[in-house]
């Protein structure tokens, strides 16, 4: 995988975690998350998005459950800790500091 492709994957994973963190239920589905990625300029196939969601599940950042052709995804405490910069997950872009 090229450096650029790696950066896109790491950025996409962070966008997914931040999107889930912004939901009241900390949950969404892969179709809505695919749309969220597209709004950030990352236009990829459903299979690509599913692979990234599975990677996030593998590192414990989310739980993912198949429901028909989509994955239902929920942010875990570990994923939230990454978004809040309390921990750093391998393969996920580190969030920038938010200065208020």
Automatic annotation (TrEMBL):
Q: Which Gene3D superfamilies does the record associate with it? A: Winged helix-like DNA-binding domain superfamily/Winged helix DNA-binding domain
Q: What is this protein called?
A: ArsR family transcriptional regulator
Q: Which organism is it from?
A: Pleomorphomonas carboxyditropha
């Amino acid at each position: 995988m090229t450096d650029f492709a790696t950066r896109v994957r790491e950025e996409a994973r962070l966008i997914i975690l931040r999107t889930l963190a912004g939901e009241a239920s900390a949950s969404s589905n892969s179709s809505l998350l695919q749309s969220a990625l597209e709004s950030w300029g990352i236009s990829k196939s459903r299979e690509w998005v599913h692979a990234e969601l599975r990677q996030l599940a593998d590192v414990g950042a989310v739980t993912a459950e198949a429901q028909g052709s989509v994955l239902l995804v929920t942010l875990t405490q570990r994923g939230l800790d990454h978004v809040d910069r309390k921990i750093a997950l391998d393969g996920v872009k580190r969030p920038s500091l938010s200065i208020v």
